[in-house]
Structure formats: C-alpha cells, structure tokens
Amino acid sequence: MFKTDCRFYKGYLPCKYHKLEKAVLACGSCGRYDKISKRILIIKLGARGDVLRTTAILPALKNKYPKSYIVWLTKDESIAIFENNSLIDRVLRYGWETIAGLFAQKYDLVINLDCENTSAQIASLIKANEKLGYGYDEKGFIKPFNKETRPVLDMSLSDSLKKRNKKTYQEMIFNICKLKYSKDCLPVFRLTPAEISKASKFAEKNRINGKIVIGLVPGSSDRWSLKRWPARNYVKLAKRITGVHKNSKILLFGTQHEAQILEYISENSGKNVINTGSDNSLRDFAALLNLCGLVITGDTLALHLAAALKKEIAVLFGPTSHNEIELYGLGKKIYSDMENISVEEVFHAVKERI
Fold this sequence. Notes:
This protein is α/β, with parallel strands linked by helices. The protein contains 14 helices and 12 strands.
C-alpha cells in the first residue's frame, strides 16, 4: 500500500528515494516517510517585488504548521524567486492547465494575498477547508474570506484610509494569515553556491574585494516613472560618495529598460562606478547585489532583494506609500517628490548606513 500522505509521494511514478536508494521495501517502510499534516496553497500572481516580499510569511507558516506541504501559484516571471527555497514544496506556474488541476484538488488551507479579480476567482473556486485573504462574491466583486482581511480591502477602496495607514505590508498580510508578526521574518531568497561563486569571480575581475561596495539601482517600472530619481542626481551622488570614500566602488544595476540610464551614469561618474549590465537574470542580479554592503534604490524589486539578503538599504520614495514598506531595521527611508530629494540628503543617509 502506498503512503499518499507522504511529502515525497508523486502519484504517477516512484519517489526520488525509491530511485536513489533502489528501495525494495514497501512504501512507508523505507525510513523516509514524512507525513504531511496540512496542505496549503498560496496564491500570489502580482509583480516580482510583491511576490518576493510576500515570501516573508513562509518562516511563520512553517513554524505554525511544521509538517505542512506548501504550494505557491505564481506567474512565470516570478518562478526563479523560489529556486533553492526549502520552505516551498512545489511552485506552480500560472496557466489554464495548472488552474484546471487545482480545481480537481482539495487543500486544507488556501491563502490568496492578491486583491485582484483573477486571483480572487481562482481562490473562490478551489476546494478548501479554510480560506484566508481575498475571494470573489456572486455579484462579481472582491470579498474578504476572513474578518482580518476586511480592513486591508477597505484601504484599497479608500484613498483617505490608505493615507492614514501606518502598518507595513508585511504586518497586514501576517494579520490576514493569522500569523504572529515579527521583523525577523524577512523575505526569503536563497542563493546557490554556484551563483555565489559566479559573483565572486565578477568581484575578482573588477577588483572590488576589500572595498566599500555600494549598489545603485536607478530604475523603476514604466507604471511608476515618478518613482525614479533623476539620472543626473545619481551621477552627482556617485561622485560625492567616491570622492569622500576613496576606498569605495559603486555597482550599477538595472534591467533592459534602464540600459541607457546605466550607460549615462557610468560614463559620467568616474572609474570607480561599474555597470553590471542590463541583461542579468533575476538570480544573477541578486548574486551581484549580494556583493554590496549597502544598496540605494527606489521602491522596486531590488529593495526586497536587498532586504532578503540582509543588506543595508537607503530607499527613495516618491508617490508610493513609505509607511507600507518594511525595512527590518536595515535601512533609511527618504521620501518626498522625487525632484525634491536632494543629493546631499541621500549622501547623508549613505554615511549613516555605511
């Protein structure tokens, strides 16, 4: 008889230990049997930064449900976030075949932390003993599955409530999930030894070992262009930092959308500013960011990566709510209209965090 409640049971082929250890014993008699106590599905289809910062719930979930089997449904662009993450048992790529499979299953707990229609519809249709977060009602509107979600949903409907909010995103989602919040629960992103080694070779090639290494991330999404500090200010800041801290090196980070900005900054900031390129994969981007002691960024994916990697952070905020961003005691928030944030103000924050 096969143990279908074992963590390693696949349902359509032998488990990995049966193959690796050439087991001939009956299922469950091999010493590898790991009984699952709770099957949990997390739905988060949003942008990569939102997905990454939501992983902060994983340590708390595992602490509350030690024998749980956790599945995470997300979009293709966020799959790489979960590589080498032992707190997740399975990552599902969003698509209709995957959704059809989910509709045929039943979970003990479904958590949907996307306040948007598609995720809410999926969460409402999946069978589960308990549901937390956002669902979909018969009138075609988002609804809260539990009372803890109601205040957060209300904020999405009212600008005045959102402006009055003083809780971070993490505090709000922990409350939705009925978890005890702690600033020790950082976003989870775990580099592999191969990724760390590759970044080390970059450090050797560019002679940054033993230096004060600061990351500059000047980009933002096209949706939030007002979150972007002017490129000329990054040039002034880079010159100010390297002029005062002679033993410093600055690494520039960005995507293909910021290629021209990175080139402009590197060409005008001096030899101690290194452009890491605009075509790095998410994993390579994170490995290179890990070389930095301090990261200067806007409210972007890099902010949440820096927090997950436990880096010092200086964050520039424009139109987005700085109250909702958790820095875990690692950083300094600088907020105003982007045009009004001075180079000297950011430089002072850098001096504080170095």
